[in-house]
Amino acid sequence: MDSLLYYLTPNEMDPFYLFWAKQLFISVGIIAGFYLLSRLLQRVLAKVGTRLCAYTETDLDDRILEIVSGPVMVLVNCAGLYFAIKRLPLPERIGVIAAGILFVINIAIITTVAFRIVNEMLERFGDRVAGPEMSRQLMPLIEKLCTIFLIITALIITLKHFNYDILSLVTALGVGSLAIGLAAKDTLANMISGFTLMLDRPFRIGDRIQVASQTGDVVDIGLRSTKIKALDNTFLIIPNADLCNSTVINQAFPDVRGKGRINIGIGYDCDPERAKELLVRTAKSAPNVLAEPAPEAYFMNFGDSALNLSLFFWVADYTHLVKATDQINCALVKCFQDNGVNIPYPTRTVIYEKDTDHAPQD
Fold it and tell me: Residue limits of the Mechanosensitive ion channel transmembrane helices 2/3 domain (predicted)?
C-alpha cells in the first residue's frame, strides 16, 4: 500500500482517497445499520418473547429468552462487521484472517449460549426428574460431560471451517478413549453400576439395607462406591459393582415399618393355645408395638424338647425393632412364670441296657 502511494502523483491521490473514504463510509453505514437491526431485534424479542412466555407456567422460557437476547445482538453486530470488512478492497489474506476471527467469535458465543441453556435446564429439571440424591451426585458429572461435548463439537466445526483434516483428531480421540477404557475398566464398571443404582433406586440415602451378613444405614451413594454406616458405628465402603451383583434387602421399603419375630419354646405339658394368648397379650402391652397390624402368635412345630411357637409383631420404625424385642422378651419371662408356662432346657434321654449274654460268669 505504501509503495502504491509512493508512485501516485498528487493529482492521482485525490481520487484514491475519495474512493477509500467512500468505501469506509459505506462500511461504517453497514455496521451502524446492523447495530440498529440488533437493537430492533432485541426490542422485538423483549416484547413478543415476553408475551409468549407469559402463557406458560414455568419461568424456564423466560430464563432462556434472557440468555439468548444478549448474544443475538452480538451475533448480528458481528455479521455487520463481517460484511463491512468483506466489501472493503483489502488484500485477500487480511480478509481471510478477519473472517476467520469473526467465525471463531461466533462459534464461541453460540457454544456459550448452548452451555448456559443446558445448564439452566439441568438445574431446573434435575431434582424433579432424578430426585435430590441422584441430582446431587449426577448433575455435576452431566454438566462436565456436556461441557466437554460442546467444546469438542465447537473445535471440530472450527477446524473443518479452516480446512483442517479432523479425521486424525477423531481417530486419536477414539484410540485414547479405548486405552482409557481398558486401563480403568474396574472404575468404569463401578461408575456404570453407580448410574444403575441412581436410576433404578433400590435404596435411598438413610435407608437401612442388608448386604450378605452386613446391615447398616446408607450414608452416601457415589459414582464409584456406596458408603454404609453399620449398626456398630463402623463405615462400610462397598463398590457399586458389588452392590449391583448382590442381593440387597431394603428394610425401609416400601415403608419404614418393621416386622419383628420372636421364637420361643414351651414344655410339652403346657397348653399351646394358652401360651399363644399370653404371647399376643404381652406384645400388645409393649409401648413400641403397633396395634395395627395386630401381633400374632403361631404354633410352628414340635421340637426335640419343646413345642416351638413364634410371635410376629410390627413397629412404626424399623429402628425400634431391637428395643421392642427387648421389651417383649423381658415381659414374657415374668408372664410365663406367673402363669405356669415353663420354658424347658434342651434335654436328651440316654437309655443304657446291660448286655447279659456277654456278662462275665462268676
Answer: 147-185
